[in-house]
Amino acid sequence: MPERLEKLKHWLEAELDFREYTLNPASADASFRRYFRIMHEGASLIVMDAPPDREDSRPFIRISGMFSDAGLNVPAVIDENLEQGFLLLSDLGSRPYLDELNGDTVARLYGDALGALVAIQTCIPDQGALPSYDRTLLLNEMELFREWLVGRHLEMAPDSVQTACMDAAFSQLADNALEQPQVCVHRDYHSRNLMYMERNNPGILDFQDAVIGPVTYDLVSLLRDCYIAWPRAQVEDWAYGYQELALQSGILREEHEDPVRFLRWFDLMGMQRHLKAAGIFARLNHRDGKPGYLGDIPRTLGYVIEVAARYDELSAFGEFVEAAVMDRFDS
């Protein structure tokens, strides 16, 4: 990493002619990207360090432009060096939703976030501009739960019954995702990637993995956040409110008015996402040396257990997660 930092400083000084400036870590995320905050000539800017052998920065640039054209508040790309993996970006500040959310602010902040989500979902990219959230990708994501949390972290070797239970649940969750209306999906729309802004709230980060996928994916990412939880009844009220907003906006059509079906889409989509997230959190610890996400696994699995208990076809899987995974993780 010191070599990367030296390359970054050389780019700033030799190519962008930065002279007097300060450079400090801004944040890191669950990938190989790092972010630095630069103070230069009285302005605050962000540099993304995305090693080109690990990360492709071109989707970030493309989607930033697409979202900006839709009126969304995203970092502007000021300069770039794709060969070395550096981007110079505008700075959306240091107030993530996670630090600002509480009982007094949540209605306003989520209202703004849901309004921005409508704009995301009504983005119509050029044909083929975004990959499809297809069955292979959905299943591969859930396999992270089996490989990294069950296998690597808990050192479990599931028997044939447990394996069949996981296979059946993964298939049902993929079916649920694929039967939904397909829209532009941010794919990480949660409280650590939304920034509180005085104007044009929220600022939106980490959108480079956007796809065309299920209409409830970003909604459940926001409302059943891996990092902060709200009462189930309140979450369902917000979800139904968004269903109405999506119907009014034309994202959903008349045949999508059934609230029971919409809630099932939402619930099962959340299970798919939370299984993926739990696997990623375990992988971050074992592969990447980032143990800080392990504490979020019990909350994430708790969503899976709670939702599975409400659907007969998934109840056995929920019991497996509770008895064989959650109990061992807690111990």
Can you give keywords for this protein?
2 domains, Phosphorylase Kinase, domain 1, 50% helix, two-stranded antiparallel ribbon, Aminoglycoside 3'-phosphotransferase, Chain: A, domain 2, 11 helices, single chain, alpha+beta, 331 residues, globular, 5-stranded antiparallel sheet
List the helices and strands and how they pair.
Elements (H helix, E strand, L loop, with lengths): L1 H14 L5 E8 L5 E7 L2 E7 L8 H12 L7 E5 L4 E5 L6 H4 L5 H16 L13 H19 L6 H19 L3 E4 L8 E2 L7 E2 L6 E4 L2 H7 L8 H18 L9 H28 L10 H12 L6 H16 L1
Helix pairs in contact: 4-7, 5-6, 5-9, 6-9, 7-9, 8-9, 9-10, 10-11
What does this structure look like?
It is a single chain. The protein is α+β, with helices and mostly antiparallel strands and 331 residues long. The protein has helices at residues 2-15, 58-69, 97-100, 106-121, 135-153, 160-178, 217-223, 232-249, 259-286, 297-308, 315-330, and strands at 21-28, 34-40, 43-49, 77-81, 86-90, 182-185, 194-195, 203-204, 211-214. It has a 5-stranded antiparallel β-sheet with strand order 1-2-3-5-4. A two-stranded antiparallel ribbon has the order 6-9. It has a two-stranded antiparallel sheet with strand order 7-8. A hairpin with a 2-residue loop joins β2 and β3 (43-49). The longest helix is centred in the last third of the chain and has 28 residues, at 259-286. The two termini are 35 Å apart.
